[in-house]
Design goal:
The chain has about 375 residues and is of the alpha+beta class. It is about 35% helix and about 20% strand. A hairpin with a 4-residue loop joins strand 2 and strand 3. Its EC number is 3.4.11.9.
Length: about 375
């Protein structure tokens, strides 16, 4: 992996050099990890003029092999208490003869920015923009493998929950159990706070579990994800509690399923992001649910659970091969509940079989 990280840093350095900066300071944790293999708390990465340095306030925890920084990097652990690794890195850059340092202005706070200027007044600070985030969009096969394993863990945790008795249990209890199962099966932890929504809460985007208990006849929607070696995936499913769903539940579920399938089938290299959103949205809009739709159909995943590209009506750009995204349309009807179906897929060309589905739990409307 050391060569992989070196190539990533070289690509970023080339972008910085093209904009007139001889060095870069990376502070966003996911970006630090992408370029160095690890992101100890508050660590920053200096892409220097003569060498690259990972600057940490404390020594990294090397007990977990895949959390160890790239051995090709020089590790600089600060002495003393209360120092800022970003300021320390800027001073190291000055020591390397750097006169222009590109920083992540979208992440660096005003306070840290001011502190760097005060500590290294002759250093000209420029912006690196979202260069690292752009590099992260297309994943290599090692990254996709981590996502695939995370998806398998999430599928397994969800499958086990569905085999248990659900009636009478609270949303909060079920969410906690799912997160425990994720860790039991090898996840670093949940990719985001697990959402379990029942009855009138079902299908609501970003629902935080409450003490409401599962009842017969409820819709039950679950959205969870696993983090594996830093990479985060997502899955969402909706079920019915009881012996048989009501007619309105079947109708709504079939509609959301059709929308989700339309979005999935639109994933292809070269497809416009807004067209993927439109494919799913049109199905629901034409059925009269325009006001009940979420703001997006999906988004990229990786070291963060919400990355570029964004699959929204106003999205710019097109999809590339090897880009993992979610497709997650849903409808929530206030006071009644709703449906959400969410998969993580990898964009692949038709010659390679089309989009690769990572989350494989059945999308059949199960009565539990």
């Amino acid at each position: 992996m050391s060569e992989v990280y070196a190539v990533r840093r070289t690509r970023l350095r080339e972008r910085c050099n093209a904009s007139g900066s001889t060095a870069a300071l990376v502070s966003r944790p996911a970006n630090v990890r992408y370029l160095s293999g690890a992101a100890p708390e508050n660590a920053v990465l200096l892409l220097g003029r003569t060498e690259d340095v990972l600057v940490c306030a404390d020594p990294p925890d090397d007990r977990v092999p895949h959390n160890r920084p790239d051995e090709a990097l020089r590790l600089h652990v600060m002495t003393g208490i209360g120092g800022d690794p970003a300021v320390e890195a800027a001073n190291l850059a000055v020591g390397q003869g750097v006169d222009a340092l590109a920083v992540e202005e979208h992440h660096l706070t005003v306070t840290r920015h001011r502190a760097i200027r005060e500590s290294a007044p002759r250093l000209r600070l420029t912006g690196v923009g979202g260069a690292v985030e752009q590099l992260r969009v297309v994943k290599d096969e090692e990254e996709i493998s981590c996502l695939r394993i995370g998806a398998e863990i999430a599928d397994q945790a969800l499958g086990e929950l569905l085999e248990s008795i659900l009636v009478g249990r609270t949303e909060r209890h079920l969410a906690l159990e799912l997160e425990r199962r994720l860790v039991d099966h090898g996840a670093d932890g949940p990719a985001f706070p697990t959402s379990v929504a029942t009855g009138p809460h079902a299908g609501r985007p970003g629902h935080r579990p409450t003490d409401r208990r599962v009842e017969e006849g409820d819709f039950l929607s679950v959205c969870l994800g696993a983090t594996y070696r830093g990479y985060r995936c997502e899955i969402g499913r909706t079920f019915v509690i009881g012996t048989a769903p009501a007619d309105w539940q079947i109708e709504l579920y079939d509609l959301v399923f059709s929308a989700q399938r339309a979005g999935r089938e639109s994933l292809a290299p070269g497809a416009a992001c807004r067209d993927v959103d439109r494919a799913a949205r049109q199905v629901l809009d034409s059925a009269g649910y325009a006001e009940a739709l979420p703001v997006l159909t999906g988004h990229g995943v990786g070291l963060e659970i919400d990355e570029d590209p964004q699959l929204t009506p106003a999205a710019m750009g097109k999809l590339d091969a090897c880009v993992p995204v979610t497709v997650e349309p849903g409808v929530h009807l206030p006071g009644r509940g709703g449906v959400r179906i969410d998969d993580t897929l990898v964009v692949r060309p038709e010659a390679d079989g089309g989009p690769e589905l990572l989350t494989i739990t059945t999308k059949e409307l199960l009565a539990l």
